[in-house]
Amino acid sequence: MKRILLAVAFLIPSAVFAAGPSMPLDKANYDLTDNASLQRGAQIFMNYCLGCHNAQYQRYQRTFEDIGIPVDLGEELLQFTGDGVGSHMVSAIDKSAAAEWFGLTPPDLTLVSRVRGADWLYTFFRSFYADESRPFGVNNVIFENVGMPWMLEELQGTPRKVTETKVVNGKEQEVTVLTTDGNGRLNAEEFDQAMLDLTNFLVYVGEPVKLERQRMGLFVIGFLFVLLVLTILLKKEYWRDVK
Question: Is 94 annotated as a binding residue?
Fold first, then answer.
């Protein structure tokens, strides 16, 4: 009986995690080989996210070198904390003050892509909307009662929820969609691309060696295949004279 209970205890969290979000997510077609996208994502992250959030397990220099930014240029244009280029990407915000302002300390974002997933992040960035009932005047469709201001409003414009009539399965239905007032620096297509770039960068930060790991995996599989062939031939050689 105890073994059964232990098995259930281990399986329940796994099942909950596998269930994922209850709302459909938009597909994030990120590309870790696209250095231009990673560089744009790094620029957005450094300018709009790092003021409150950390990426404390990632170093500036490693980041600049990996995504093709000259170290001196990255230090000049993308590093605002005054630390050395070899330091970790840590926000200068006071943690106790941040906890008082936001209700909790802003979470570290180094591993957020591995915890939430790229699709969730991409959808989250594009799901803010104006909500005067909230302390910061915004809410989020997939993260209800989110406790942060929408820092990218100047890029997107003011997002709002509106009800439209659309034909779904041959029937007219009222659906809620997000729209902006057009006062942002980017149009809708450009903003979606910017959020994909930011998602791409956070996926990279979550596992900087992902591409190298995948390349090494191919070599390992190739080695094991060759070893298998040699092992079969050796086995045949040993057993050839056995009647």
Answer: no
CATH number listed for the domain at residues 24-154+182-206: 1.10.760.10
Low-confidence ranges of the chain (pLDDT < 50): 1-21
Q: How would DSSP label each residue in the chain? A: -HHHHHHHHHHHHHHHHHH--SS--------TT-HHHHHHHHHHIIIIITTT--EEEEEHHHHHHHTT--HHHHHHHT--S---TTSEE---S-HHHHHHHHSSPPPP-TTHHHHH-HHHHHHHHT-EEE-TTSTTSEEESSSTT--S--TTHHHH--EEEEEEEEEETTEEEEEEEEEE-S-SSS-HHHHHHHHHHHHHHHHHHH-TTHHHHHHHHHHHHHHHHHHHHHHHHHHHHHHTT--
Quick: pLDDT tens for 57-70: 999 999 999 999 99
CA distances 208 to 57, 67, 158, 203, Å, are 11, 10, 34, 8
* pLDDT value of residue 100: 82
Q: What is the pTM of this model?
A: 0.81
Determine contact, residues 102/136, Cβ cutoff 8 Å.
Answer: no
Length of the chain: 243
Residue 49 annotated in ligand binding: yes
Domain-by-domain residue ranges, the chain? Answer: 24-154+182-206
Token digits for 170?
């041959």
Annotated binding-site residue? 204: no
